[in-house]
Amino acid sequence: MRKLTALCLSLSCATPLAADPLHEALRRAVNDHTIPAVKTFDAEAAALADVAAQNCLPEAVKPAYHAAFDAWMGLQHLHMGPVEANGRILAIAFWPDKKGMTPRTLASYIADEDPIIEDPAEFATASIAVRGLFALEYMLYDAQFDGYEDGSYACHLVQAIAHDLGRMAHEIDQEWTMPDGFADTLLKAGDAAQPLYLSETESVQALYTMLTSSLENTKLQRIGRPIGTFERPRPTRAEARRSERSARNVMLQLEAARDLARKLAPGEMPLAEAAFAKTIALTEELDDPAFEGAEDPMGRLKIEIIGQNIDTILGHLANEVGAPLGVSAGFNASDGD
Amino acid sequence: MSTRRTFIKAALAAAFVPRLSWADAGSPAFLGAAKDTNGDYALYGLDHDAQILFRAPLPARGHAAAAHPTKPEAVAFARRPGTFAVVVNCATGKITHRLDAPEGRHFMGHGLFVNDGALLVTPENNYAEKKGVLGIWDRAKGYTRVGEVATHGIGPHDVRPLSDGTLVVANGGIFTHPDIGEGRQKLNIDDMEPSLVYLSPSFALEEKHVLAPELHQNSIRHLSIGPDDQVAFAMQWEGDEMELVPLIGLHRRGEEVMLPQADMGEQYAMKGYAGSISFSGDGTEVGITSPRGGRLHRFAPDGTFLGAVLRGDICGLAPREDGYLGSDGFGALLALKENMLPLNAVPGLAWDNHLVALPALVG
Questions:
Q1: Which of A320, B94, B199, B337 could join B323 in a cystine, given CB atoms 3.0 to 4.6 angstroms apart?
Q2: B319 cis-preceded (ω within 30 degrees of 0)
């Protein structure tokens, strides 16, 4: 590449190499979106592990927990490569936990004083129900768990969870950014050491799919679970409601998706920008951090409208990002049988 | 339905080219349907290394094909709720017959030649009576319909043969009606009951297996037969996405059904959906694909999870060497085992849900 550029300069090429919009979209999305995302999560999860190691008590750990969760919301939409390898995505964020496995498994570990927490390598193989941000949320915020004392089993469990999160975040960062790591898998596509995407189009396609499916998932899960049906709203199903992050997670997910869309977009995306801004504003104006308002019809409607606005975003993204790049959702993934 | 004209044409074709065999179609190893950039659909013949040998245009989106055991004929089925199938002469690329489902029935996208290719059987939805049937078509009579038999379940999807001529039917359990929701809307999700059924060579019910009540929303859709007539079936979960359910079943007649799973993270990553299933070419393992989860899951015949291979939109799967041939919606045809090796990539060609393997035939 460097050689080519030099050659180009010497011949004073009229057309810069940067002319291919797909190629540029891929470079921007990988270098300016995905790499900062894995770096930030690594840094914040490491800080969380450090804080917990010094003081395991809820009030001390909570700010670092929030910072790490914020960073995760900037990364969790990238369900690919190191993020989804080895079941990490669920080990970091096991939600929705339909069967209430998290509190049940935490309680049994604590009751048994399961020694698995003593060895980080062992804890890495523990049930995903006692690992990650949602297990930590129970320990820090739920009345069943948050009364533990310094030096207790529960205190060491919190430290083990935080340490395990730091380890996973660091592994993701390394596997993503190292030479011939996942960033190179995306950037080099068919020329990668172990090709996963056979062309730059496929790499962009994969990133675009992450963008759209993350928004669909926010609508379906983060919005859809708490609003339930009109007859039966389910506010206690809101994501991370114990730490009052339900609305914040929607906002941060929208912001992460917007950033990825901006990096992928070959030109301006005025309609998508407007739709993102409106949807984020609606979520802020809600002023209902744990979506408790889903209980009454008016509050429920306001949350439901956020979901409808996500559909609007998706429509504009298809026109302003997907179509100009020549990518869309997979043929079989979107319509199987 | 054979008109007088198609019958004469077929008779003439038979008279002039009496010995047409798969070699005349280039001896394809696989058949697959795909959509091209113009939005046109065609059936493709592929050689062992996934290079295209022929292309036969189809009138609409296909689902799967049935290959005749000796004659270079493939029957391509319209996808649900299609009411027609076409017989493609793979040596000439021409459509020689068109099969129309009788009143009150539609095809399910799959079919199978039986009796050494004398008969074609087609899973169908008899929506008037809300039951599944196998239509029976006589090839020698120009693919006329000669009868139908019950599959003993709703929504039969795939049908495969055992070595003794026994037929295995996957009753998906889902009722649809062509007049409702473009014929693909699921109308009985709350009380669906998928089943695995064995029919004798004369189509009598021999065994029927249903899943445990908590898995009644796990639609049994596709089949692959392994060594010693081990039956592998792939499922599509219609219940809550976050429920962890098995997506592959393994069964031998007279034994219990095995429902193995991958480890939790991998199992979730399949997104409750297996699109295709195939034993490996050497029969030592069996794979299921999830285009939604973008992965192939490999299992040993005893149910041990062997690993995942990641590939977005992967769906079609057929046996090849000691592994598989896989296809996806991005035009790629991949050799798969522990890793993937691209064999052919045709940008703009979106391979449809299934690949069909042809037995290696010479002459």
A1: B337
A2: no
